[in-house]
């Protein structure tokens, strides 16, 4: 196929905006193409040369592109640069420059094949002379281009094609061209969701129609589009939609699709299907224990505090996405991966099995402990109270909430449906003021904190009953020096059993007399079934907790335990936080 035919088609697409018309134009183009060409048209029309997950980029900067246009047209770089500022569109610039080219002597007509293979050459050029190869190849294409061809080649090279054609429009056109009707797009879509390579789909259907599609299945190394969740506002609504459920912790980290080959190779893909293996060498190494079988897992990776095992907020994990310093980020914020699904095992796709069966397989492979571990979940059958308690417990542990799943559902790749429902904490509001809390117990540390305390159990004071009620476990904000000294500081106050003035549902490793007051800042106050502060005051069966508590560094030696923040103050803070959120919502809605 001549490239001019493709360029003319793109020019028509630019002029119209109606979807049906677009589909018709593309369909006719596909009908003139052989399967090999159909593949190339499919990529190019979306401004690509390969599926996104391959990460192949054309990588030609603006400066190099301008130089190539200058070479191909014989116009000085200076003039090209000036014209570019005036025209403002690299495609139109190339079209103009090529139009000014003096002689067309010796010009070869461009084919789609040549354009495509030149673009691949530009993308694949590496090494010291790669810039030179890129410029020469691009200039070579332009030298043989008609002006209108130059317009689209230049835009594709610069990643600025933007014809307004979406993936789904292209699938519609493929369905019309090869399956007889747009109604049959779902056949293509289903395959595209498990094999998101538009070129491969186009080639398969152009070659063998439905039969070609049958050959496409879940494949190791090709990321599946992730299944997503619908949102609801209340636990009641969850139960209405999925009475018998798996309620899973919703970790606030990075979605990670894990591909493991039996020979030990590993690839990690993000929610957007990018290859994110590089920033997670520790996850890759931890996955080595699974070697020996081919599999695809779906998971969420979070950053943890290496000393206490606490889950850290999402921002901490994002330090990993920097280009440099992965090693340091890895030490500072080690990752734990919570696996919640298995999609493929030893050559077989599992996505059509019910979740209950996939979970059984998963549980026979992924352990409940360690750096790669199974998601924490609970089977709940229409029990609202149990669901609410599990939700609060999850939020207090640093989760975003829960993802509720129907155990009978299949894995619907690329779909946001009602078989997965997310129930998130409904507000995010910063706790602005620090509070003064009394240490009533401690938990032994691990790793760097072995031999000292990993976290303290902190309480508020209730003057009415003269009791200390727990409100959080705190392991963050301590300097190394503070940490080392903790056992020594608390030694005079250690008791064999819990002090009678302390009300706690949590078992600490070491109990203290309530004496020492520390200043603490947190992110917000949440409902919690495990802390005794404000128990039953807001909701029956729940207390209040401080989420993501950190020591500010101030030992409040100037305060006795009775001077600590009171239970009532925390209840008031919770209520005003809610009020603030309501007001914010009203403001948002008004805006
Ligand atoms: P959100 O901002 O809520 O994460 P989203 O649009 O990114 O929204 P959703 O489908 O709405 O994605 O929420 C599901 C996301 O939650 C998943 O993409 C995944 O990254 C994360 N997640 C955490 N824990 C789980 C879990 N147990 N099961 C499924 N997804 C989970």
From TrEMBL:
The coenzyme or cofactor needed here is: Mg(2+)
Task: Print the keywords alphabetically.
Answer: ATP-binding, Cell cycle, Cell division, DNA damage, DNA recombination, DNA repair, DNA replication, Ligase, Magnesium, Metal-binding, Nucleotide-binding
PANTHER family registered for this protein in UniProt: DNA LIGASE 1, DNA LIGASE 1/3 FAMILY MEMBER
The active site is formed by 250
Q: What is its EC number?
A: 6.5.1.1
The record's NCBIfam families line, in alphabetical order, gives: dnl1
Q: Which residues form the ATP-dependent DNA ligase family profile domain?
A: 328-462
Recorded GO MF terms: ATP binding; DNA binding; DNA ligase (ATP) activity; metal ion binding
Say which family it is in: Belongs to the ATP-dependent DNA ligase family.
Organism of derivation:
Candidatus Methanodesulfokora washburnensis
What's the protein here called? DNA ligase
Record-level GO BP terms: cell division; DNA biosynthetic process; DNA recombination; DNA repair; lagging strand elongation
Q: What does this protein do?
A: DNA ligase that seals nicks in double-stranded DNA during DNA replication, DNA recombination and DNA repair.
Q: Describe the reaction catalysed, as an equation.
A: ATP + (deoxyribonucleotide)n-3'-hydroxyl + 5'-phospho-(deoxyribonucleotide)m = (deoxyribonucleotide)n+m + AMP + diphosphate
Gene behind this protein: lig
Q: Where does ATP bind?
A: 248, 255, 271, 300, 340, 416, 422
């Amino acid at each position: 196929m001549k490239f001019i035919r493709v360029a003319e088609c793109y020019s028509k697409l630019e002029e119209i905006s109606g979807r049906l018309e677009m589909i018709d134009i593309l369909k006719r183009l596909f009908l003139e193409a052989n399967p090999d060409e159909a593949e190339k048209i499919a990529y190019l029309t979306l401004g690509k040369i390969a599926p996104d997950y391959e990460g192949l980029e054309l990588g030609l900067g603006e400066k190099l592109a301008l130089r190539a246009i200058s070479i191909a047209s014989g116009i000085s770089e200076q003039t090209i640069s000036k014209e570019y500022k005036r025209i403002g569109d690299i495609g139109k610039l190339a079209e103009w420059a090529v139009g000014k080219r003096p002689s067309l002597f010796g010009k070869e007509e461009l084919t789609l094949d040549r354009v495509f293979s030149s673009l691949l050459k530009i993308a694949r050029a590496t090494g010291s002379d790669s810039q030179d190869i890129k410029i020469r190849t691009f200039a070579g294409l332009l030298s043989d281009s008609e002006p209108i061809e130059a317009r689209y080649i230049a835009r594709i090279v610069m990643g600025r094609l933007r014809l307004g054609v979406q993936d789904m429009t292209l699938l519609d056109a493929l369905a019309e061209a090869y399956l007889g009707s747009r109604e049959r797009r779902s056949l293509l879509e289903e395959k595209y969701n498990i094999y998101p390579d538009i070129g491969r789909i186009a080639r398969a259907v152009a070659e063998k129609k439905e039969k070609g599609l049958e050959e496409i299945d879940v494949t190791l190394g090709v990321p599946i589009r992730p299944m997503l969740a619908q949102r609801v506002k209340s636990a009641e609504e969850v139960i209405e939609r999925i009475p018998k459920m798996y309620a899973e912790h919703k970790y606030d980290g990075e979605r990670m699709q894990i591909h493991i080959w039996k020979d030990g190779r590993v690839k990690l893909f993000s929610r957007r299907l990018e290859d994110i293996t590089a920033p997670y060498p520790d996850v890759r190494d931890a996955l080595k224990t699974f070697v020996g079988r081919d599999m695809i897992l779906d998971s969420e990776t979070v950053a943890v505090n290496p000393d206490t095992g606490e889950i850290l907020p999402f921002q901490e994990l994002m330090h990993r996405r920097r280009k440099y310093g992965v090693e340091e980020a890895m030490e500072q914020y080690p990752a734990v991966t919570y696996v919640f699904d298995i999609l493929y095992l030893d050559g077989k796709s599992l996505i059509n099995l019910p979740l209950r069966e996939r979970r059984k397989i998963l549980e026979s492979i992924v352990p409940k402990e360690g750096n790669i571990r199974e998601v924490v979940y609970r089977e709940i059958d229409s029990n609202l109270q149990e669901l609410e308690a599990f939700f609060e417990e999850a939020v207090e542990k640093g989760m975003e909430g829960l993802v509720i799943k129907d155990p009978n559902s299949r894995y619907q790749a690329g779909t946001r449906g009602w078989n997965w429902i997310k129930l998130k904490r409904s507000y995010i509001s910063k706790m602005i003021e620090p509070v003064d809390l009394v240490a009533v117990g401690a938990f032994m540390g691990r790793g760097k904190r072995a031999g000292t305390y990993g976290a303290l159990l902190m309480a508020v004071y209730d003057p009415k009953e003269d009791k200390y009620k727990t409100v959080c476990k705190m392991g963050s904000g301590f300097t190394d020096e503070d940490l080392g000294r903790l056992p020594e500081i608390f030694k005079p106050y250690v008791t064999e059993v819990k002090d009678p003035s302390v009300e706690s549902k949590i078992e600490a490793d070491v109990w203290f007399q309530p004496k020492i007051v520390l200043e603490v800042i947190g992110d917000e106050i949440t409902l919690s079934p495990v802390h005794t502060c404000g128990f039953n005051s807001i909701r029956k069966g729940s207390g209040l907790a401080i989420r993501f508590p950190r020591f500010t560094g101030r030992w409040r030696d100037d305060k006795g335990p009775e001077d600590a923040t009171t239970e009532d103050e925390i209840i008031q803070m919770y209520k005003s936080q809610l009020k603030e959120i309501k007001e914010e919502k009203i403001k948002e809605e008004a805006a």
